[in-house]
Amino acid sequence: MSEGRSKSNKKFMLLSAIGIFMVVDSHTFTAFNFFGDILPYNSFFMPMFIFISGYFNKVDSSTNLLKYLLKKVKTLLVPYVGIALAALGIQQLINLYKLGDEMTPLPPGYFSYMLERTVTVGSPFALVTPMWFVISLFAALMVYAVLKKFLYKFWNSIVMFVIFCGLNMLTVYLAKNIDPEAIRPFLVPLKVMFFLPFLEMGVIYRNHIEKKHEALPGGAKLGLMFGLLIFNMIRTIYLPSPYDVACDSLDDLSGFTSPYIVTPIISAIVGILFWLTFVDLLGKTVQESRFVNYMSCHTFWIMGLHITFFNVLNCILMTINEHFVELLYFDTEYFQGSEWYYWEISPSFKIVYVLAGVLGPLALKWIFDLVTGPVRRAISGKTKAEQN
Question: Which among 5, 106, 281, 321 is most buried, taking Cβ atoms within 10 Å?
Answer without folding.
Answer: 321
